[in-house]
Amino acid sequence: MLNPRKSILLALGSNLTSSAGSPDETLRAALHRLEKLGAAIRAVSTFYSTPAFPEGNGPDFVNAAVDISADWSAQETLAICHQIEAEMGRERAQRWGQRTLDLDLIAYGDVVLPDAKTHVEWRNLAPDRQISRTPSELILPHPRMQDRAFVLVPLADVAPDWKHPLLGQTVIQMRDALNPADIKAVVALE
């Protein structure tokens, strides 16, 4: 018997023009590329305008979220995301810098990688250390998803009831626990 295809949650962001065009055109091109590479798109969020993170770090972003299924492992999914980013001209010169495309693997079903202890360490990493440290292995669910309105607001469009396997909260609960001003800053594009 085959395993059912996992629900894979991705966050998309762009605040620079790419070969595909404007940030919103870049996100659409990335979604198309995911399909070409074998992903089935289950749901795509509204596209949102969000302030650059950290504050003052360039032009506003266009952010979205997508729920896909694919016959990829978590590591293969990450590699495909990096491949698509590179195709769109992404350069990894500065952590949390401006970018043509950012595809973040937020969750791979309810999988916790590499283990709960390591996940807690990365989730609790002080903000000033987050910018200078990069994990050497894939951490899932994304260790800072619960802190970011630009992830949770779009994610609530596509997976409102997905429950964080370690925090025990749904996307909606995590979103609603954020500072209301942060949520309000995530504005739907028309």
TrEMBL record:
Gene3D superfamilies: 7,8-Dihydro-6-hydroxymethylpterin-pyrophosphokinase HPPK. Pfam families: HPPK (PF01288). CDD domains: HPPK. GO terms for molecular function: 2-amino-4-hydroxy-6-hydroxymethyldihydropteridine diphosphokinase activity; ATP binding; kinase activity. Keywords: ATP-binding, Folate biosynthesis, Kinase, Nucleotide-binding, Transferase. Pathway: Cofactor biosynthesis; tetrahydrofolate biosynthesis; 2-amino-4-hydroxy-6-hydroxymethyl-7,8-dihydropteridine diphosphate from 7,8-dihydroneopterin triphosphate: step 4/4. The keyword Nucleotidyltransferase does not apply. GO terms for biological process: folic acid biosynthetic process; tetrahydrofolate biosynthetic process. The keyword Nucleotide-binding applies. Its EC number is 2.7.6.3. Residues 10-160 form the 7,8-dihydro-6-hydroxymethylpterin-pyrophosphokinase domain. Catalyzes the transfer of pyrophosphate from adenosine triphosphate (ATP) to 6-hydroxymethyl-7,8-dihydropterin, an enzymatic step in folate biosynthesis pathway. Belongs to the HPPK family. This is 2-amino-4-hydroxy-6-hydroxymethyldihydropteridine pyrophosphokinase. It comes from Sulfitobacter sediminilitoris. The lineage of its organism: Bacteria, Pseudomonadati, Pseudomonadota, Alphaproteobacteria, Rhodobacterales. The gene is folK.
